[in-house]
Amino acid sequence: MGRRFAALLVAAAIVLCVSGCGIRIPSDPEGTLEAVEGGVLHAGVSPNGDWVRVEGDGVSGTDVERLRAFAAALDAEVEFTVGSEEALVRGLKDGDLDVVAAGITDATPWTTDAGVSRPYAEATLADGSTASIVMLVPLGENAFLSRLETFLTEEGER
Predict the structure, then answer these.
(1) How far apart are CA 127 and CA 116, in angstroms?
(2) Is 62 inside a domain boundary?
(3) Which residue from 36, 97, 121, 133 has the least number of CB within 10 angstroms?
């Protein structure tokens, strides 16, 4: 019984020390969520059916509307960058973009280069099968990813 009590005391001390140091979990090593809140959401999009449409000098589609609503929820403006998925993932890695959306499936090859959200929608593929749709964020920006996933889940429940 004495060892168990000592272990509990040590665990409690560690929790108090960590919380006292201001460490937040999840966290963003590069501060993405903090930079976007009340600022600008830099969103990369790539044309893909009804998910993202590029028309003249504007963008539209279901993912574009989701990103606009997410930015509004963060009291942020949204700036769109249109490009190929490869160029957009490079933008995430370079710190130029905060999120990428393009009707990307959870079978994306970009999992080693970007953080991947939980699926928030389903799409029917050309062969009749279904795929889960995700968004991409910079690797390690877990507070931002968590906020995005919470938003996407809550929006899906409406």
Answers:
(1) 24
(2) yes
(3) 121
How many C-alpha atoms does 50 have within 13 Å on its Cβ side? 7
pLDDT digits (tens, 9 = 90+) for 49-65: 999 999 988 999 999 99
Helices 62-73 and 142-156, packing angle to 10 deg: 110
In the structure, what pLDDT confidence band is assigned to residue 115 with cuts at 50, 70 and 90?
Answer: very high
The CATH number given to whatever domain includes residue 43 is 3.40.190.10
β-pair type (40-45, 99-105): parallel
pLDDT in tens, 121-132: 999 988 999 999
Kind of pairing between the strands at 53-55 and 58-60: antiparallel
Q: Is there a domain that residue 98 lies in?
A: yes
Peptide bond just before 109 cis, omega within 30 deg: no
* 24/27 Cα distance (integer angstroms): 6
36: tokens are 């976007």
- Please give the structure tokens belonging to residue 35: 């930079």
pLDDT score, position 16 = 47
Question: In this structure, how many other beta carbons lie within 10 angstroms of the beta carbon of residue 65?
Answer: 12
User: For residue 49, what are the domain limits?
Assistant: 29-156
Q: Does a structural domain hold residue 8?
A: no
Count: domains in the chain:
1
